[in-house]
Amino acid sequence: MYSRILKYPQNKSFFLFGPRGTGKSYWVRTTFPDAVYIDLLEAELYVSLLANPQRLSEHIPEDHSNWIILDEVQRIPELLNEVHRLIEKEKYKFILTGSSARKLKRKSVNLLAGRALTLSLFPLTVLELSNDFNLERSLQFGHLPSVSHESNPEAYLKSYVQTYLQEEIQQEGLTRNLAAFTRFLESASFSQGSILNVSEVARECSVGRKVVEQYFQILEDLLLADFVPPFTKKAKRRLRQNRKFYFFDVGVYRTLRPKGPLDQPELIEGAALETLFYQELKALNDYLDLGFDLYYWQTAGGIEVDFVAYGEKGIFAFEIKRQAKINSKSLKGLKLFKKDYPLAKTFLIYGGDRTINKEGIQILPFNQALICLKDLLK
Known about the structure:
Layout (H helix, E strand, L loop, with lengths): L12 E5 L6 H8 L4 E4 L3 H9 L15 E5 L7 H12 L2 E6 L3 H5 L9 E5 L5 H4 L5 H7 L11 H18 L7 H12 L8 H7 L4 H13 L3 E4 L15 E4 L2 H7 L8 H23 L5 E6 L5 E8 L2 E7 L11 H9 L4 E6 L5 E3 L2 E5 H6 L1 H4 L2
Parallel strand pairs: 1-4, 1-5, 2-3, 3-4, 10-11, 11-13
Antiparallel strand pairs: 6-7, 8-9, 9-10, 12-13
């Protein structure tokens, strides 16, 4: 398996959230081999602690001075009160993993009031894959860790989607109509990398608008999707205000997206390129504590920049193009953005193989841009 670049506190408890399949359990067990490991997916243990959260201390040896891992903590939110007590009284250090913060948010439970940090684990990054990074494979199957060694990654991803529907959606009772939610997922895949139109998605999957809004909230709570807001700081022109939508991993998106003679492959490929770049940008920003807020920028007339990273380190604007040849139209969005924000560093990431600097815009091949993204953000 690959070494992860996730940084963690040495002497402070922390939450570790991430979608199923990103390797949370494997990472905590290999990084903290001497920790007490309490798995809430074990049926008997789950029932016991659900009935009486105070039994948690019975699973911790006396005089234990190392880490305590509580896996899938969202299954019993009430345990956090006991964790709080044990941190205060016994000075224990907990690692609390979960694939959803939904129940914790919904029940407004004790989130340890600053006694535990919150970290995230994402699909593998290009930086972590290192020499094993293959752009074509990444665009097709994404970066979930298990995909990297699966002989049939397509079958694994189909199973992953089905498992999520069964385990997260059905078992937790998040929706009573699993068939409608399945249709919604397919419809939502057409919105990948686009400004979200909830009413349009509702029409496509024959579900009411308010229900679809709840479905999108479920995706966000289960860490399956992100919503990218518009960049409007000191706007000098009229801009779009709705959020853009992305499934969290390009392989999951490609699995959900219908493919047939009426589906335009260039649109699927374009959304896949954007998704892969976004998931790399988001993960590096978090892991390396770069401090950027991530946005997109689009004028009311439709001229756009795919991603804007804004923070103390500056303004960085990225436009993603699948074509191998660049023309004046390709640079239009970045040139207009730079006119409004002269301090911005602007990048066009494209399907060609040459590195060019044109009118202050750095033009980079997609493969190269992903590999050196950490350095571009300096």
